[in-house]
Each structure stands twice: as structure tokens, then as C-alpha cells.
Specification:
The protein contains 22 helices and 20 strands. Strand 1 and strand 2 form a beta hairpin. It is 43% helix and 20% strand. The radius of gyration is 28 Å and the shape is globular. The two termini are 24 Å apart. Helix 21 runs antiparallel to helix 22. The chain has a 6-stranded mixed beta sheet with strand order 5-6-7-3-8-9, with helices on both faces. A 6-stranded mixed beta sheet has the order 14-17-18-12-19-20, with helices on one face. It is of the alpha/beta class.
Length: 634
Amino acid sequence: MAFLLGCEKVRVEFPTKTVFDGISLGVDEGDRIGIVGRNGDGKSTLLNLLAGQLEPDEGRVLKNGSVHVGVLGQADALSDDDTVERAVVGDLPEYEWASDARIRDVIAGLASDIPWNARVGTLSGGQRRRVDLVRLLIGDWDVLALDEPTNHLDVRAITWLAGHLKTRWKQGAGALLVVTHDRWFLDEVCTRMWEVHDREVDPFEGGFSAYIMQRVERDRLAALAEQKRQNELRRELAWLSRGARARATKPKFHVAAAQELIADVPPLRDELELKRMAMARLGKQVVDLERVTVRFDNADGSSRTVLDDVDWIIGPGDRYGIVGENGAGKTTLLRVIQGLQKPTSGLVKIGKTVRFAVLSQHLDDLARFGDDRVRQVVGRYSRRTMLDGKEMTPGQLLEKLGFTRADLNEPVCDLSGGQKRRLALMLILLDEPNVLVLDEPGNDLDTDMLASVEDLLDGWPGTLLLVTHDRYLMERVTDHQFALLDGRIRHLPGGVDEYLRLTEARDSTRPGEGAGAAQSLKQSSQGCGTRFVDAARPFASSGATEAGSHDAASGAGERLSGGEIRTLRKLMQSNERKTETLNAKIDDVRAQMAAADPSDFTALGDFQTQIDDLQAQVDALEEEWLEAAEKLGE
């Protein structure tokens, strides 16, 4: 793999903070790297540094001279006065960009519903984000550096983007650096992770799920090492005077170890207990929608139906997630549920004891605090709240949501976006509502804070309605998911994947609709004698995506024969048995090592050599197993 770019012994310092100190990193061809870390630890700084947009205070940034880097920032630099066409393709003649299959594919995938002649200044936040993405993705880049590319995108756009990035380059070519809080996206796209923390960057193999498991194992090993160090401190001091200790191994993380780590972890939520507590707070009725229809009149005299004869019962303790395209009517549905929007027809019944609380995308409720400091705001709340069967004070809630002592003296208006969202959530919980409506609560939160919020919501005893485009958050926090499709509420037993299949099936029966870029593309393609290929459809399922990625990467759609498949499966099963045997031997040698005389350095060295040899055999078997699994597409 050829080296593309990186940095060597880099130090980055701002007036009030040192972000990096002596870090060295490299990006090779074929790398797909997700960058995670807490808000403010330097994820965007690292991206800008590697992309050449920020100069280090010490050290140097290295780049292969022929490498072209494309960068997507958190904020776009689009001109409000430009049309969508000019923002995307600039002054390129129509016959040139419309005859390029790659450009047509990107435009149709992300901007098919956006009017081609609309002014950028009239677009919504999600539409501007998609236009900026299209502008970047139609370019020919060796490295893509994307900072929060999923912000403002709906589920379908995120799924399309993931599929595009997985098949954009051939296997082993190009490189991707992405900063995002969308954990599904990280798992789908990335094969390596970088964790930014405490002026350092730690690399991990695999996507987000593998990163979490390795981090748990890393922390467990660190705790064991610290315990051992404390127990043997006096002996170690004696050893230090005689020379360095024996080299320690750094074994890989195994699936079996992960299963052992989570074997005694209880379920995320005690659903029966939470429903019992919710019944005590809410009674039997929460919100019932009976044959509810909502229509809006257009300026031309026509009308648009947002909700069409909807029947829906929301009960005590229900945890529902709502998905739908931008503009499908999710906000209208939430307003109807709260009694803020009267339906055109039908009946909305709201229980007498219901107390709504809403965490919106815009956090308008915090504006009233102005320059008040966090400690002043929290000091006005003396009540405790019940979470997961325990009473929690405002201070304990703040700590659980990641606020430090220094943060308490910060004015509310000066808090970061993630801090404001966490503070707003805490104040809502202190008001003790019994129906909680969350509209994109994951915006501006890093992955660690998302995990803290999820943990907090797991113990909250009430009815929860969640609207989010974050698939991981949706399926982690809610028990049932519903889609708003063509004005109807549809239950999704199969989760977000089922929603994507439904929208794909619906769109396949509506050819030629819309006055957006896809229609312009179709006309332009016909005009220049090329055949238009509809690339706007999202990937039907993760399996389909993986298959497509594999075929594109290999350059041929050939399948393995039955005999080859059987041979590979036998090899995998054999390696699993051999690995189990070797691991048992390693455990046995470690037990002998623990029982040996700690002053017999020769014996300890022999035991360590045996462990190293056995571990090398395990590593080789695992590598062979992974190669076979990759060939089988597993």
C-alpha cells in the first residue's frame, strides 16, 4: 500500500489549549478511517491538519506530491446567489457533466429532488448539505476528508452516501477520513478507527463496534495492570534496580473475550418495570389518534395531505421511534400529538395526566438564560428526579452528562452546541415530564456523550417519542420504530432496514416524478445521446450493499464454486478448533507462570517465550480465518 499523507511529531497549540503533542500518523491507500473522540479534543483540527488547511506549531505534515485531497467542512462555502447547477458543476458545459456517468450517479443519488435552477439561499439546511456533498463527490480525489458529512441528512441520503463511499474506489485504492457521530455510518464505511483524546491519537482496527470492544478490553487490561502494579510495587522497585522487566505481549482482541465481557451484563432496560412506573405516572391513556387527517392549502389553490386518516395509539411506557424523509410531516405529526396542531378531520385524545416536554433541534428554551452561568441555572432546581429506580440530584445529572467543575462557571450562551443540548436535556428531566419528545437529540454530541444520554434514557420511566436520522440511536433507545410514508403511519418490525426497503419499493413504482436534478439529468442525458441510469435508489439492505461493494472491489462478479465454498468453510471450522486449543494452552502456561517463583527470571522468561510462540500461532490462524471469511463475503 502506497503512502498518501500523514504527520510526524506534530504539535498543535491554541492560545488556551494544547490540542496535540508529538503525534505521528500515516494514511495509506485503501484506508477507510473513522475519527472519534470527545467534543473539543481535536477531531476537526486533526482533519484540517492532514488536509493541509492548518499548519502545525511543531513537526511536519507529509503528503505524496501527486495526492489530491477533497475536504468537506462542517459549514459550506456556497454562495446564496448561485443556482444549484452552478454550485455543483460551476461553469462546466451541460453536455460535459451530463455525459459523465459518475457525475450523473452522484447527482441522482443525493440531489434528485432539488430543483436544478433554485437559488442556494432558498434551500433548507439538509438540501444545502446535499448540494455541498454533490459538489465535492463529483470531483476526482485520492483522499476524501469529511467532517460530519451526515449532519442534516435523512436516513436514505445517509444510506446512499455510505454505499457510494464503499464503492467509490477499487479495493486497496483511495483513502477516506471521516469525523462523524453516526455510529451506524462508521460501522458501515470504516475499517479502522482513530480515537482522539488527551493530546494523543490511538488507532484501532475495525469499525465502531470493534473499536468499542477493543476499548473495553484496553480499559480492562489497564485496570488489571494497575491492580497488579499496586500489589507488587515493592518487588517492582527492586526489579527496576536490576534492569528492565520482560517484554509484555499485546494480544489481539478475540470474539470469545468479548462474549465473556458482556456475559454478566443485564438487559439495557427493564421494560416491565418501566411500564409499571409509567402507568403510575400517566394512567392508562396517553395519546390516541383516531382517523386523523391534516391538509395544508398551497398558494396555487391546491392542497397537500400530510397525515391521511391516521389511527395510532401511544400508551404509557411506549418508546417509539419515528422515521421519514425530510418534509414527510414528522414535525406536523409531533405537533398534532401534543395538541399544538388541530387536525383537518379526526380526533386527538390526550390523557388528563399527560405532561409533554420537547427537546427540539434549535434549543430555543435556553435563550432565556442569557449570560447566566451553568451553576446559577442548576441552582434554581432543588428537586431530585428518579432515574433507573434511583434519586438523582441536579449535580449528579450534570456529572452523568459529562459536565466538569470548570464547565459550571461557563455562561450558558458560551457553551458549545453539544453542551447546550445536554444541559437542555437535563433541565427537561428535572421538570419531571411523563411524555418526552426528542427531535434530533444526537446533533452536536460526540459518541461518548451519546452513550451517556442513551444510558440516561434507559432508566427514564415514561413515554418516549424520538425523531432522528441516526440509525444507531434510533434502534438503541426505542423499542418500536414507525415510518411516516405517504401520510400513513407504518410499523417497522424490521427497523430502519425495512423502512429503506419500503421506500425503495414505493419509488420504483413512481418513475419520472419530481422536478429536481434527476429530471434535468434525464433530459440532458437524452440530449447528448447517453442513456440515463437511475442511481437515486438507496441500497435495499446491508447485505445488498456488501455484495455490491465486493463485486465492485474485485472487478468481476464471479461467484465461488460449491467445492470452493465447502473447502473455505472447513478451513474456518478447523482454524476455530485449533485456536481454541491454543488459547487453552496459553491459559495453562499463564497459570504456570503465575505460580512460579517471581524471583526466577529464567523460568519466567521461558514461560513468556512459550506464550509468545503460541500467540503467534493464534494470530496466523486468525489471519487465515479472516481471509477465508472475506472470500465468502462474511
